[in-house]
Amino acid sequence: MKPLALYPLLSLVARLIVAGAFVLAALPKISDPQAFAQSVISFQVIDGALARYVAIILPWFELIIGIGLLVPAIRRTSSACISLLLIIFISLHASAWQRGLDISCGCFGTTAEPTTNYSLLILRNLLLVAATIVVMRRDFKVHSSASMVAI
What we know:
It contains five helices and no strands.
């Protein structure tokens, strides 16, 4: 089997993993926005009022773009949004690590990650970024091939 023949399967697996991660991360935060707001505040980047808005809006956005990764019509937009969010998350973790903060990121709810291992958090998010790149690359290739056929 040619390596290029495996690319659609790799893209599907990457899509399922990233979508699953974002949906699973969103659900506990949606069910307990106050606890997530505390996690947001602990990063010491935004204040309490704004943190409450982030705690309400961000999990729903994560849920929508996670599901959107499985919907062909919005897959590319969802991939781009997920990549951007992951880069922001990586920056926040790196900043907290550099400032010596020992906090739970609240990524998968407040009890899922009781200790902070910033190197693993950053690595996990980098791997998820790589997976979204696989998805976007495959989607752009399929979309551009379909455009060439239409011409």
